[in-house]
Design brief:
Length: 366
């Protein structure tokens, strides 16, 4: 079974419970679970992830290629490709429950979702989730293809996907208000998933510090013309498509394309001995890789009813990425917020889940 197929099967399980999701990934990455033990007369209420360690032998039949080399245990690249991509199922479920909560909770003469700040939170969380989806899907595809570029793209994607998952979960926790920490039925799933996603990096050793694994190939990746590589933002056909079908995204795309060109030069001449600067460069490359993955997904799905093919969603994701590049996150414009909230409501109503691939969801608010 491929990594993509394993992730596809595990995402709904992550949506129910993170431990169930890890069980679903066990044939691919293996695991050892240690049951939590409560003190005598006490009760343990803790993160579902706290009892998991990724140090079991690799499952038989796991194939290796130039980009992924297996050893006596699950290869770090396999874990880094599979776990963040599958964990999106937990964030997806938390987002759906948050929409239901925000529609049901009455406040100030309306519902929570009528409040502009709440709508902005939901829009930002969904944009970040869709960015993580595009990025992790691209990394999984490269890993399954055993592409040499996977040795760089997978750790970059694991690094940023985990940050995006945690940040989107934080947005969801604010949206849920006191319901988040009070575990109020029937929305206690929100708190469970937000907490477990925040713990993901700390609990899975391969996800704790993946950037160093990408450093040796950073310059080559920045010069790659693969659709998921930063240089693809500079393709004339990409610029023409955005100008024609997503004019609102032209400005932010041009800014990100310029950043990709500048970053490629920096990657070709790294600052010797300055590890902090090199890691900061790798982080920037991960952001530009995410932008390329979002645009590639849009190019593939445009004209369809898929969320990935919506030019306003693509623009919102690029704006959020640009905010991270310049370390200043302005609020999304009102039209983008309205479109993202409409998508979130449509997906919550349909119960549709994220799926691996460029056309990842088909619920349409229009």
């Amino acid at each position: 079974m491929s990594i993509a197929e394993s992730v596809e099967r595990a995402r709904p399980a992550f949506g129910r419970d993170v431990s169930a999701g890890l069980d679903a990934l066990e044939p691919l990455i293996g695991r050892i679970g240690v049951a939590a033990v409560a003190p005598e007369g006490g009760e343990v209420v803790t993160s579902a992830l706290r009892t998991y360690r990724f140090d079991a032998p690799a499952a038989p039949g796991l194939e290796a290629g130039p980009g992924l080399k297996t050893s006596g245990r699950p290869d770090a690249a396999v874990v880094r490709a599979a776990v963040p991509a599958a964990a999106l199922g937990a964030l997806d479920a938390a987002l759906r429950e948050s929409v239901r909560y925000a529609r049901a909770r009455e406040l100030y003469g309306g519902t929570v979702l009528d409040i502009p700040h709440a709508r902005s939170l939901l829009a930002a969380a969904l944009a970040d989730a869709l960015t993580a989806d595009a990025l992790s899907s691209a990394a999984v595809c490269l890993a399954d293809a055993h592409a040499p570029a996977a040795s760089v793209a997978v750790p970059l994607a694991a690094h940023l996907s985990c940050l995006l998952l945690a940040d989107a979960a934080q947005q969801v926790s604010v949206l849920a208000g006191s319901t988040f920490y009070a575990r109020i039925a029937p929305f206690e799933l929100i708190e469970q998933h937000v907490r477990d996603l925040s713990a993901l990096v700390a609990l899975v050793p391969e996800l704790a510090d993946p950037l160093p694994a990408a450093l040796d190939g950073l310059a080559a990746w920045c010069a790659d013309t693969d659709a998921a590589a930063p240089a693809s933002l500079l393709r004339p056909e990409v610029m023409a498509a955005i100008a024609a079908d997503a004019p609102g995204a032209v400005e932010v795309h041009v800014a990100l394309a310029a950043a990709a060109a500048e970053t490629a030069l920096d990657a070709g001449e790294p600052e010797a001995g300055d590890r902090h600067a090199v890691l900061a460069l790798a982080h920037r490359v991960s952001l530009l890789t995410a932008a390329a993955a979002v645009v590639a997904g849009w190019m593939h799905a445009r004209g369809s009813e898929a969320i990935a093919g919506d030019p306003l969603v693509m623009e919102a994701s690029l704006r959020r990425i640009r905010g991270r590049v310049v370390r200043r996150q302005p609020p999304l414009p009102a039209d983008l917020v309205a479109r993202l909230v409409a998508h979130a409501e449509a997906r919550a109503a349909s119960g549709e889940e994220m799926a691996i691939g460029p056309a990842r969801a088909t619920a349409s608010p229009m």
